[in-house]
Amino acid sequence: MTFAPSPLDNLRPNPDWAKLPIFDRKGWKRLPFGAFADSVNERVEPANAAEEIYVGLDDLDCGSLHIRRWGKGSDVIGTKLRFRKGDIIFGRRRAYQRKLAVAEMDGICSAECVNENETLFLNI
């Protein structure tokens, strides 16, 4: 059995990629998260948000900036946090999993997540 060559077989890394300005870190400095982001702390009761989008830590995909899954506010109990379109949702628990997304819609998430170091909503 013979396989036809793939067009990807000819791809090679560009040796000049490291010269792009985005990779020049000379002017970079480390800052605490709070220096460029504000923690959003607007609390919502699920009874008042039954039809709203609910995003949990399990709904965030590793290495993706998009939220592809969610539930409804009626699916959960207890006080939640509100996030707005454009907010950054960051999973702090097991941060090595790189669970981070930019909200493309308004919604709510578990308030316990923040207290238990799971998820933090940021508006920058």
Give structural notes.
With 124 residues, this protein is mainly beta. It is flat, with a radius of gyration of 20 Å. The longest helix has 5 residues, at 111-115. It has a domain at 37-108. The chain is built from 1 helix and 9 strands.
Q: Would you tell me the structural class of the helices and strands?
A: mainly beta
The radius of gyration over CA amounts to: 20 Å
Order of helices and strands: EEEEEEEEHE
How much helicity do the residues have? under 10%
- Give the strand order, joined by hyphens, for the main sheet: 1-9-6-7
| Total strand segments | 9
- Spatial separation of the terminal alpha carbons: 56 Å
Largest sheet composition: 4 strands, antiparallel
Query: How many distinct helices?
Result: 1
Anisotropy-based shape? flat
Overall average residue pLDDT: 78
Which regions have little confidence, pLDDT < 50, spanning 5+ residues? 114-119
Give short descriptive properties of this protein.
single chain; 124 residues; mainly beta; three-stranded antiparallel β-sheet
